[in-house]
């Protein structure tokens, strides 16, 4: 009998397998045209046969997304730290940031293309610009909600603001930070693919656009699938980092498992 | 006469601007260097506020607070504080929590890496004194409230502060742990002689531990009575059952009872 721990880890895989099965059955039973909704078996077939074709594009998308995402982390943490630790910055910058984030990024891509040309740079920039805001919000919130009692422990020792930020504020904000990363990583992919769809000759977005235009729906879906897999892998990496840096905040789950 | 280490001269504090609550009104008291003063009084009379003013966390509205002859304008680097809540930092284990002041305060801060082993040994020795031997590597949520408060005491003492400020540190502890920690505190004080200011609602505790007990009136608090404690050191728990000890506690209790009644009738 498998122990609880393994069952919990296995569950997502089982669930995904179940979804594919249901999807396959749905297509078979309803007789839907493959142009509209291909069978998962057809999608996997396309993926395996066209893999050498798709792979360089996948790498391109992964690369631009990672660069944009890491840039978003740097910008997000810096801005978030500024806004979360200064009342003045909080009041002054937040409205501006919200306004900026409300602009649909699809409108921004052509401007980036105008400035930087077609291809990689607009993709990285779009990815950055679309994904940094949740990080700013969460880091700022984590910092702004730090209990004064925690800060008093250091203040009474004569610690400077910088000390308090580094030793209390930022560690305290880590759970919030990692929560925002989960949102941001998905947004980063959205940004890249958006840019590639509009103005690029490489990347998964480009593959999907070309495939859809040629009614090669199974190919488009296989590109989508690859994208999803990449997203999950990246998510997994950051989930591991989260355990290292914010594990202290999730002791509830640990206790629940131990009670078995 | 030597300058008192802590001096309050007609100090008042009003929270929240000109229309706010007057928490402390015209408090005057002295604590000599190496002394041990307790402040007792009815609930909400401003005792914790006095402590915050000494530590520099909150500025006085009027009057003068001086420590070591200098007016208090902000947090001082030679203070150890223990609050009612132990407030451990949950991302550190117990040892790192205790060693935290060493990362902030000079001269430990700049030599932290170089002398890490020495400082660690110090922290572990302190933990042993308070009865937490072997708990250094534990996570903070693995300790009970009483144990966290003991660790909090260690954190307040690790950097050998000249001034120790304690805000009802034993309030949440059971009677046996409290008695144990009274002994520990007295021991540490007699060994290192920091100047101590203790806020407590436990009169017996104040008489047992301190050189001088000050009684505060109801809000807005001012010091209405100060009494030196005559019992010889070191004071074991037995002294608490001596008639003159009991009498002193009774006297103080009456004073506070009057202060509370006054406060209630004014309100």
Outline the structure in words.
- By secondary structure, chain A is an all-alpha fold.
- Chain A has one domain (40-245): MetI-like (MetI-like fold).
- Chain A is 85% helix and 0% strand.
- Chain B has 267 residues and is of the alpha/beta class.
- Chain B has a domain at 1-73 and 200-267: 3-Layer(aba) Sandwich (Rossmann fold).
- Chain B has 7 helices and 10 strands.
- Chain B has helices spanning 47-55, 94-104, 116-129, 145-157, 175-192, 203-209, 243-266; strands at residues 6-15, 21-31, 36-40, 62-67, 70-71, 79-82, 163-167, 195-199, 212-216, 223-228.
- In chain B, strands 6-7-8-3-9-10 form a 6-stranded mixed sheet, with helices on both faces.
- In chain B, strand 9 (212-216) and strand 10 (223-228) form a beta hairpin.
- In chain B, helix 2 (94-104) packs across helix 3, helix 2 (94-104) packs parallel to helix 4 and helix 6 packs across helix 7.
- The chains are: A mainly alpha (260), B alpha/beta (267).
Major sheet of chain B: 6 strands, mixed
For this structure, what is the CATH homologous superfamily of chain A? MetI-like
Structural category of chain A is mainly alpha
Oligomer: heterodimer
Would you report the number of β strands of chain A?
A: 0
Terminus-to-terminus distance of chain B: 41 Å
Radius of gyration of chain A: 22 Å
Q: How many domains of chain A?
A: 1
Q: Hey, roughly how much beta strand do the residues of chain B contain?
A: 15-25%
| Reported CATH architecture of chain A | Orthogonal Bundle
Major sheet details of chain A: none
The residue fraction in helices of chain A comes out at over 70%
User: What shape does the CA trace of chain A take?
Assistant: globular
SSE arrangement of chain B, N to C: EEEHEEEHHHEHEHEEH
Q: How does the overall form of chain B come out from the CA principal axes?
A: globular
């Amino acid at each position: 009998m498998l122990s609880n721990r393994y069952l919990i880890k296995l569950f997502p895989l089982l669930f995904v397998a179940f979804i594919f099965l249901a999807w396959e059955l749905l297509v078979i039973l309803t007789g839907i045209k493959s142009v509209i909704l291909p069978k998962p078996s057809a999608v996997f077939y396309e993926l395996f046969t066209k893999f050498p074709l798709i792979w360089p594009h996948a790498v391109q998308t992964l690369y631009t997304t990672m660069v944009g995402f890491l840039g978003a982390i740097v910008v997000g943490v810096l801005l978030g730290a500024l806004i979360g630790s200064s009342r003045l910055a909080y009041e002054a910058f937040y409205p501006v940031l919200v306004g900026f984030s409300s602009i649909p990024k699809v409108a921004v891509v052509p401007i980036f293309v105008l400035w930087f040309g077609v291809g990689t740079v607009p993709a990285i920039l779009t990815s950055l610009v679309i994904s940094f805001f949740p990080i700013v919000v969460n880091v700022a919130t984590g910092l702004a909600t730090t209990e004064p009692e925690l800060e008093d422990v250091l203040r009474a020792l004569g610690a400077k603001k910088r000390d308090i930020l580094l030793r209390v504020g930022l560690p305290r904000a880590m759970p919030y930070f990692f929560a925002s990363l989960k949102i941001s990583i998905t947004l980063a992919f959205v940004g890249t693919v958006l840019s590639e769809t509009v103005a690029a000759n490489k990347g998964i977005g480009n593959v999907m656009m070309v495939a859809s235009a040629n009614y090669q729906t199974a190919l488009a879906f296989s590109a989508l699938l690859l994208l999803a897999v990449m997203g999950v892998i990246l998510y997994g990496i950051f989930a591991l980092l989260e355990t290292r840096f914010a594990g202290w905040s999730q002791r509830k789950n640990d206790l629940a498992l131990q009670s078995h | 006469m030597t300058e008192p280490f802590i001096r309050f001269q007609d100090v008042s504090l009003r929270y929240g601007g000109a229309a706010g609550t007057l928490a402390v009104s015209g408090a005057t008291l002295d604590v000599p260097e190496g002394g041990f003063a307790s402040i007792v009084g009815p609930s909400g009379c401003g005792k914790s506020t006095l402590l915050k003013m000494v530590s520099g966390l909150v500025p006085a509205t009027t009057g003068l607070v001086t420590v070591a002859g200098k007016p208090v304008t902000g947090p001082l680097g030679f203070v150890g504080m223990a609050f009612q809540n132990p407030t451990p930092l949950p991302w550190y284990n117990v040892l790192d929590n205790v060693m935290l002041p060493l990362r902030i305060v000079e001269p430990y801060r700049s030599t932290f890496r170089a002398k890490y082993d020495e400082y660690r040994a110090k922290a572990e020795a302190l933990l042993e004194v308070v009865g937490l031997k072997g708990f250094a590597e534990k996570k903070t949520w693995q300790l009970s409230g009483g144990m966290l408060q003991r660790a909090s005491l260690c954190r307040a003492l690790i950097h050998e502060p000249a001034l120790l400020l304690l805000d009802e540190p034993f309030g949440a502890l059971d009677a046996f742990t409290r008695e144990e920690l009274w002994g520990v505190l007295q021991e540490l004080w007699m060994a290192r002689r920091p100047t101590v200011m203790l806020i407590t609602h436990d009169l017996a505790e104040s008489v047992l531990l301190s050189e001088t007990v000050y009684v505060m009136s109801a809000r807005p608090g001012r010091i209405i009575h100060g009494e030196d404690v005559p019992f010889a050191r070191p004071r074991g728990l037995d002294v608490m059952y001596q008639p003159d000890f009991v009498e002193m506690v009774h006297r103080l209790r009456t004073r506070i009872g009057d202060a509370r009644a006054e406060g209630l009738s004014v309100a």
